[in-house]
Specification:
The chain is 24% helix and 33% strand. It has 4 helices and 8 strands. The protein has one domain: Alpha-Beta Complex (Cyclic Phosphodiesterase, Chain: A), CATH 3.90.1140.10. A hairpin with a 7-residue loop joins strand 3 and strand 4. A 4-stranded antiparallel beta sheet has the order 2-1-7-8. The chain has a 4-stranded antiparallel beta sheet with strand order 5-4-3-6, with helices on one face. The chain is globular, with a radius of gyration of 17 Å. By secondary structure, the chain is of the alpha+beta class. The model is unreliable at 144-157 (pLDDT under 50). Helix 2 (55-65) runs antiparallel to helix 3. A motif (HXTX 1) lies at residues 41-44. Hydrolyzes RNA 2',3'-cyclic phosphodiester to an RNA 2'-phosphomonoester. The active site is at 41 (proton donor), 136 (proton acceptor). Belongs to the 2H phosphoesterase superfamily. ThpR family.
């Protein structure tokens, strides 16, 4: 089994800008929890554990289904936030907003990835079906696992002092260029690890 998800890779220049702003806001101690800019992404559909022998078929279906999808115009990075909430943060992220004359493209892309996943046996949980889609880019994980308590001796007291993180400065414009199928490889000493298995280009208007 492989842990897979569809996502949009953050532009490297935009990612570097976001991480620099977050590092300034968090200080030296908490900056160690930041992801590298090369792994920043917006998750579209998390498939979870997926049979390895069906990945090739999934990739082939995605190739056909994603043809002709237009890239959405996105803004991110003006404000930081936390999951599950700012009082007990486990991950830090920034929201993503779709802008421009042709809004709705991001939702179309997400729906298409879900259709591809469902055609290969994936089913959204009841919680996922009830939860509205709030696009975001995770920048840091403050605990080893989303469902694990923050250790008392980990400097958790500093987590409450995140006022500077809630303001990440000017918003950054981002035009995704492709949809990516990722494999999540877990966390190591160097941070979260992902592997790109395949990517499909999005249509971009010239200029």
């Amino acid at each position: 089994m492989q842990r897979l998800f569809f996502g949009l890779s953050v532009d490297p220049v935009v990612g570097q800008s976001l991480i620099r702003a977050a590092r300034r806001a968090l200080g030296a101690e908490l900056s160690e929890a930041l992801y590298g800019e090369e792994v920043l992404h917006l998750t579209l559909c998390f498939l979870g554990s997926f049979p390895r022998d069906r990945v090739k078929s999934l990739v082939q279906s995605a190739r056909d289904e994603f043809v002709g999808l237009w890239a959405p115009e996105l803004l991110l990075g003006g404000e930081g936030d936390a999951f599950p909430d700012r009082g007990t943060p486990r991950t830090l992220h920034t929201a993503v907003e779709e802008v421009g004359d042709a809004t709705g493209r991001l939702g179309t892309i997400r729906n298409r990835t879900m259709q591809v996943a469902m055609s290969h046996g994936w089913r959204a949980s009841q919680a996922e079906r009830a939860r509205p889609f709030r696009p975001h880019v995770t920048l840091a994980r403050l605990s080893g696992r989303p469902d694990s308590p923050i250790p008392e001796d980990s400097g958790a007291a500093a987590f409450a002092d995140l006022d500077d993180f809630w303001d990440l400065g000017a918003e950054r414009r981002w035009l995704p260029v492709d949809i990516t199928l990722y494999e999540s490889l877990g966390r190591s000493e160097d941070g979260e690890r992902y592997r790109q298995l395949a990517a499909w280009p999005l249509a971009v208007r010239p200029g």
